[in-house]
Amino acid sequence: GAGVSQSPRYKVAKRGQDVALRCDPISGHVSLFWYQQALGQGPEFLTYFQNEAQLDKSGLPSDRFFAERPEGSVSTLKIQRTQQEDSAVYLCASSKEGRGFGNTIYFGEGSWLTVV
Amino acid sequence: RKEVEQDPGPFNVPEGATVAFNCTYSNSASQSFFWYRQDCRKEPKLLMSVYSSGNEDGRFTAQLNRASQYISLLIRDSKLSDSATYLCVAYTGGGNKLTFGTGTQLKVEL
């Protein structure tokens, strides 16, 4: 498709389970971002890739969170030993620019994670 | 204190009303500002950019006051289809990331 594609759209995980969320950015887009959106809140930055290089991971909340983009296209966000506070929508976004300028970034529909 | 602050609402207005949303930001290094719209259970989508000179797009007008670190969005002649959450967003080039407010919920009613 033409947009940012994320899978799974919905995931229910038992506390302590590991999860992996996938993002397919728009073809040719250089920059890829992950954001976390808790219920009733705005999205919060997690991490940023330029091609395969992870240039900023300052928003990852703990060392249980890990992201990769090994070939500079598809990205995976992995959460180990999930906790209830990890329940949120995980939004992936991409931009053809080397920067995530607000008017050139496109979001996927998100992966809805519920930890029970 | 959050870097970008908005009144969460909800704002319940009748169709045809004019409604204004305000937003303040605390990081003076923020370079650019935007309003995004987010429908229920959907992704955020760019509504418009915000310039110091003001920016108008049809029924929507956005304004930036850098001295006061204040951003506004005005919606005239509200439509039912305007019902959504409006997110105020600041872009900081050095960090290359967008900082979102919590969003202001708008409900336009018959």
How is this structure best described in words?
The complex is a heterodimer of chains A (116) and B (110). By secondary structure, chain A is mostly beta strands. Helices cover 0% and strands 48% of the residues of chain A. Chain A has no helices and eleven strands. In chain A, strands 2, 4, 5, 6, 9, 10 and 11 form a seven-stranded mixed sheet that branches. Chain A is globular and about 40 Å long. With 110 residues, chain B is mostly beta strands. In chain B, strands 2, 4, 5, 9, 10 and 11 form a six-stranded mixed sheet that branches. The mean pLDDT of chain B is 93. The chains are: A mainly beta (116), B mainly beta (110). Chain A binds chain B through residues 31, 33, 35, 40-45, 48, 55-56, 58-59, 91, 99-103, 105, 107-110, and chain B through 4, 8, 32-34, 36, 42-46, 49, 87, 89, 91, 93, 95-103.
Please give the count of helices of chain A.
Answer: 0
**Content of β-strand of chain B:** over 45%
SSE class of chain B: mainly beta
Q: Which series of helices and strands of chain A comes N to C? A: EEEEEEEEEEE
Low-pLDDT regions of chain B:
none
What is the global morphology of chain A?
globular
Strand content of chain A: over 45%
**Overall outline of chain B:** globular
- Write down how many β-strands of chain B occur, each being a DSSP E stretch of 2 or more residues: 11
Describe the main β-sheet of chain B briefly. Answer: 6 strands, mixed
Q: State the low-pLDDT regions of chain A, or none.
A: none
Largest interface: A-B, 25 and 25 residues
Give the terminus-to-terminus CA distance of chain B. Answer: 36 Å
Oligomer: heterodimer
Number of helices of chain B: 0
- Which structural class should the secondary elements of chain A be placed in? mainly beta
Mean pLDDT of chain A: 94
The total count of strands of chain A amounts to 11
Topology as H/E string of chain B? EEEEEEEEEEE
Helix content of chain A: under 10%
